[in-house]
C-alpha cells in the first residue's frame, strides 16, 4: 500500500456539497479527523451522515468541495483511497448464502492477501464466531451478523474504518459487543469514523463528536467542549433511577460476552 | 487495477457460482418451463402440427433451447438485484479491486448456469426421441450461437438487475423474451401465419437463430440464416452492453 506520510489529519473534508435533485443534503460540510482517533458524526435520520460516508468511500461523487482520506483526494485518486479504508455499511452487507468463514476468506482474497484461510480463522476466534464459522450467515442472529460485518472490515488492516450506524437495529447486548470491538480497533491505532443517531453511543466511543444538522456541521469538539456549549450546570438533587438498559442487562444475567472479543491478541 | 481484473473476477465468480450450486432450485425452475413446453408440444399439440418432415422433437428443440436461456437469465437479473439491495455490491465497490469484475462475475455465472440448464434440457430431449447426426463442427457451431445468444440476453438482464426497484421488476423483462419464440418458426412453420404476423415472425431474431440451429442439427446447409442470426446476436449484445454500462455508471457514480 502507498501509505502517504502526512502529519495532518487522516480525513479532511472541506466545503462538501451534495444535492439529490432539489434536495440539498450537504451544504458545505467541514471537518478533520486526527489519526488514531474515534470521530463520531452525530445527526438525526436524513441529516446526511450516510451521504458523507458514501462520498468518503468513493461510492458517490460530491457536487462541490473536497475530501481526502489518508492524504488522497477522493475525486482524483479513488483507487488509492480504496486502499486506505474499510467500510461497514448500515445494513450488514454480508453474503447470506456463504458461511461466515467463506465471507471472511472472500474479502481477504479480494484484498489480495496471503493465506486468507488463516486470516479468516483468526478473526472468527477474535469475534467469538469459531463455532458458527461453518454455518450459512442466513442462520446468524443480528449481533453475530454485525460482528462478522465488522470482522470483515478489519481484514487488510486499513488505516481508516468507516462505520455507518454500526449498532442500528441491535439489542443492547449486541450493541455493547460492537462498542467493545470499536474500542479495540482504535486501540490498535486505526482511525474510526462512525455515524450514529444515538447520543449515548457517541458519548461512549468518540474522542471527538461533530453534529451534522441540515447539511452543515453545527458543533464539533470533544464531549467536554460540547458540554461547555450549554449553560453552566445547576446543582439539583435527583434520585438516581437505574435506566431500563441497566435493568435489562442485570436481569438477563450480565455475563458480558463482549469480554471474549479480541482478547486473543 | 487491470492487474487484479482476472484474479478478482475469478474470486467473485466463485462466489456467485456457489449461489447457483447452493440453490439448485433455481436451475430446476429454469428448466421446468421449457421441459413442460416440450412435453406439451410433442405429446399434445405436436400431432396436429404439420412441419413437413421429420420428428417434431427435432423440429422444436432449437426454440425450446432459446426459451431455456430466456428463463435462465431472469435469475441473472435476480442475483444481481439481490446484491444491489443487500449492500454487498457497495461493499465490493469499496474494496481495492478492479470494480468491473463484480459485474463480470455475474455475467460469467449466468453463462455457467445457463450451460447447466441447456445440458439438462438437451438430455430430456434425447430421452423424448431427439436425434441428430450432427458432427463435432456442427455441435460447436450450435454451442457458439447459444453462447452468443446467452451473452446477449445476460447483458439485457444486467440492466434491470442494476436498476429495478423490486424483485418482480428485476425478473419481469424475461416474459417477453420467453414469449418471442412463439411468434417465430420455433414451433410452427411461418408460412401458416397471417400476413403481418408472418412478416414479424420472419424478421425477428428468434427465427433466424432457430432456423440456423435446426439446419445444423439436421446436417443441412445453413444458408444466409446464420449471418442474420449472428448479426442479431452481436447487435443485441452491443446495444444491451452499452445500456448496461450506462446503468452501471449511474450506480457507481
Describe the structure concisely for a colleague:
Chain A has 265 residues and is α/β, with parallel strands linked by helices.
Walkthrough of the structure:
The complex is a heterodimer of chains A (265) and B (253). Chain A is of the alpha/beta class. Chain A has a domain at 8-84 and 159-169 and 187-226: 3-Layer(aba) Sandwich (Rossmann fold). In chain A, 32% of the residues lie in helices and 23% in strands. Chain A is built from nine helices and ten strands. In chain A, strands 6-7-8-3-9-10 form a six-stranded mixed sheet, with helices on both faces. In chain A, α3 (100-110) crosses α4 (116-126), α3 (100-110) runs parallel beside α5 (142-154) and α5 (142-154) packs parallel to α6. The radius of gyration of chain A is 19 Å and the shape is globular. With 253 residues, chain B is mainly α. Chain B has one domain (2-252). Helix content of chain B is 77%, strand content 0%. Chain B has helices at 2-21, 24-45, 56-86, 88-93, 101-127, 136-163, 167-172, 174-179, 195-203, 205-217, 225-252. In chain B, α1 (2-21) packs across α5 (101-127) and α3 (56-86) runs parallel beside α6 (136-163). The longest helix of chain B is centred in the N-terminal third of the chain and has 31 residues, at 56-86. Chain B is elongated, with a radius of gyration of 19 Å.
Defining traits:
heterodimer; A: 265 residues; alpha/beta; Rossmann fold; 6-stranded mixed sheet; 4-stranded antiparallel sheet; 9 helices; globular; disordered N terminus; B: 253 residues; mainly alpha; 11 helices; 77% helix; elongated
Order of helices and strands of chain B: HHHHHHHHHHH
CATH topology of the domain at 8-84 and 159-169 and 187-226 in chain A: Rossmann fold
Order of helices and strands of chain A: EEEHEEHEHHHEHEHEEHH
Uncertain ranges of chain B: none
Q: Label the overall shape of chain A.
A: globular
Unreliable stretches covering 5 or more consecutive residues of chain A: 1-5, 257-265
Helix content of chain B: over 70%
Subcellular location (chain B): Cell membrane; Membrane
Membrane topology (chain B): Multi-pass membrane protein
Protein name (chain B): Transport permease protein
GO molecular function, one term (chain B): ABC-type transporter activity
